[in-house]
Amino acid sequence: MVGGMEFKPNKHLEEWLYMRENQAEHFRFNKQTTKTAVIWGLIVPFLAYRFIVSEFHAQDVKAGRPRREFLGAKG
Question: Mean pLDDT for each consecutive 10-residue tract of the chain (75 residues)?
Answer without folding.
Answer: 78 95 92 96 96 94 92 65
